[in-house]
Amino acid sequence: MNYALLSTEVLTAVIGLTVLVAGLILPQRGKKVVGILAMLMTMLVLVVASLHFTDYEVFFGGVYQVDAYGSFFKILFLSAGLLVMLMGGKYVERFEERSSEFYALTILATLGMIIMACAGDLITIYVGLELMTISFYILTAYVLNDEASAEAGLKYLILGAISSAVLLFGMSLVFAMTGTTIVRDIAAQFTVQPAMIAGIVLMIAGFAFKISAVPFHMWVPDIYQGAPTPVTAYLAVASKAAGFAALARVFMLAFPLDQFNWSLALAILAAITIVVGNLIALAQKDVKRLLAYSSIAQAGYILAGLAAANVYGLKGVLFYAMLYVFSNTGAFAVTTAVEVETGSTDITAFNGLAKRSPFIAAVMTICMLSLAGIPPLAGFVGKFYLFSGAIESGYLWLAFIGLIMSMVSVYYYLTVAKAMYIGPAESEEGMAIGGAARFALWACLAGTILFGVFPAPLSQMTQCAIGLFF
Amino acid sequence: MIGLTHYLILATLLFGIGLFGVLAKRSAIAVLMAVELMLNAVNINFVAINKYVVPDTGVGQLFALFVIVVAAAEVAVGLALIINIFRQKKSVNLHDFNLLKW
Amino acid sequence: MSDYATIGVFLLLTMAFPIAAMAASWMFRPKPKSSEDKMLPYECGVDTKGKTWIRFRVSYFLYALVFLAFDVGVVFLFPWAAKFKFLGIYAFAAMLIFISLLLIGLWYAWKEGALEWY
Lengths: 470, 102, 118
Fold this sequence. Notes:
The complex is a heterotrimer of chains A (470), B (102) and C (118). Chain B is mainly α and 102 residues long. Chain B has three helices and no strands.
């Protein structure tokens, strides 16, 4: 075993602790520099992770795996974390002396996600999952003296704890039937028995909560609305991607499809999620809440690819998860900028944004059109992979529902655009956004357009990453 | 003779009681206790399975240890969040936390 | 027979240790006059002063939470200690890292004032 291959994980842990300790040592809790420190070091780790993309090693008899699949998600989580820190810098300033903990928790949550995506056994998945969620509980309730934030944190904690208990119960039943927790060994011992099926169903329920699939989505709108906006962005893109990473690895490797057809259950779940998420989003007046329901719908699309469980579908899952980072973070970055400026995320706060800052309004519009799946933006390519995968596996009806609902989703995305471009402007003065946030917006814009126009490089990366399933 | 099935039934019952507690209790602290009950049901499962299915390894016991530690972390954060919300609302009743809906 | 001698030595040592500790504390402690409070039987702590059904300071709970976190974290030491010889130097290093992480946590709690009692 070559422990140097664990450098990404070790470095992430080290920078998380460094930022925490920097807050203890530096004057004024290091509120000026911790942000820059955290961003620079995350960028460094991102470079390290990208250089080690093709590494392959199995640690401790399958407990932890370094492979292209894990590396793909490492890059995804680190770039999401970096974008969120960049665009949230201005927002985090209001935490003043507590910003070092904010960055430290963000990085530790990233570490949890990385562990989740690379874990090859159920214990490790659970530990990574909890490292991520517990960090998010704290981050959600991070705005002191704000009742919505405190309430969101408590709700997330209670619902999250229940879902982990359900997931664990499912894992214990699978362990009872197979006598092992290593994902690859489970497949060898797999037998279809009632207890095994109960375990798989409970595990689907536990993971469905993390990826916010209907009917396990009730927490999403409340928590997304109550949490600080950068945290919401991170929850929406990275926490969800981590859930998908673990879900795909466990189900593809541990439960052979030819013995037990779990894909139909996921397909039904995906269909309900797509329909419910999009329909409720139509009625939303708060942009954060609207994005919450839209993210539920997006989870449904990705789940459709996983239900397909073939090359196209899984490529779609990875492709969509990556582009979702850029498109959704872009939308949330604009929301954050508006919230910092006006103090509200209501749709009326976006009125006349195009006059105040054409650039910000353009980023918002393009990101939202990408989420709706309009060509030539990235979302279209992602949905193309997902739905062609579904059709290839015989879920024509699922692809059909997805297409219809994508069209419905254009409506609510455009209500925001309408407010920005036609809405009555209350003030004409330009909006000042910081250099870091501007960089993050450009990066999101570039990602959203480039992955749509030149999907080949990312597509090759996903092809390489899903190699371990086929 | 007590076998694996008995333990599994006990754990399932405990899990159900915990779930009922989570859904029926109104005090946030009682809800946390009910969640603990659910996690402990899982622990019983793991230890019993370890004893009856794979007695020569310790995987199940190790899993139970991890669950205990993570549950403690979760409760620590949970109580801190409850203290935080109590300072603002002077209440730990979940019915009073109704700012966010729909 | 020498095995039993070892046990005998241990027996003497274990008897000598508490005697030595008590003797030392008798020698070094201040010896004020005895009062009524001091002669009370000590069962489960001293008698309370004032009402007991009062609301505790919130810092008590913070203290308890910090204790809980470290108390439970130490549970990982047990399986490691049980298999110490088998696991060898690598696990020892890993455990040192684990404990140093706990120490950073303790340092943080200390700096944050979670250990203050006022």
